[in-house]
Design a protein that fits this description.
- There is one protein chain.
- A seven-stranded mixed beta sheet has the order 3-2-1-4-5-9-7, with helices on both faces.
- It contains ten helices and nine strands.
- With about 260 residues, the protein is α/β, with parallel strands linked by helices.
- About 45% of the residues lie in helices and about 20% in strands.
- The longest helix has 17 residues.
Amino acid sequence: MSEPYYKQHWVDIDPDRHSAYDQILAFHPALEPLLRPLDLKPGLRVLDVGSGPGHTTLELARRVAPGGKVTGVDINAEFVARSSARARDAKLDATFVNSSFPPLPFPDNSFDRVWCKNVLEYVDSAADTVAEMVRVTAPGGVVVAVDSDWDMIALETAPDSRERSNRILAASKAIAIKEPRIGRQLHGLFRRAGLNQIKVEIFAGADTAGRSLPMLKASFARYARDSGKIAQSELDQWLADVDAAVANGSYFFVLPQFVVRGVKN
């Protein structure tokens, strides 16, 4: 592995994970409160930092049309290729760039809005990435970051499986997340990067229906296995416990999302 696991697992994505991410990262109306701070309108230039499969990027493009343009940048080449094809098919003005970051491969003051969702927890330096996001934002532009706080995660399936769940989640985030407490750090990162009018909101909707199952199965289980700390037999039992909890109505999952907005002078 040429890069740390927290980065390399976004460079190397097998077909099954791509299919899972199309489901996990699809645009959903539940994202509306997260997008609202961007204050999108036609004609704006928007950057999506860590655009992934591009579903939300294309929604941004719809909201700045006509006359606006959206650029997505991502470390995974197949994400970029798939997103570019979707943009062409949808006839949307969206361009996708394959690049690691920081730094961001764009000139100063290039964008009116910069958006970054669930990415800063994985980068080598969140501080440097936020500084880059500010650099490429035009004066008067808005920067919005959305990220998790993994120390606030709650997963409940059944009392007798709680200890197993805690160990599996801990093993997962130990290798897959560079900064698990990034959510609570965003306000300070924005302030130190020189942004103004900083506003913080926290959204923590509870999943009791199993909407988070694709993430648990495609990501958490894989990370726990790759950590070398969890036996496959335990993972199989955990996944069975999760499925049973959804079936019997005892499933409960919460991962708070911090939404931080700042304005560049």
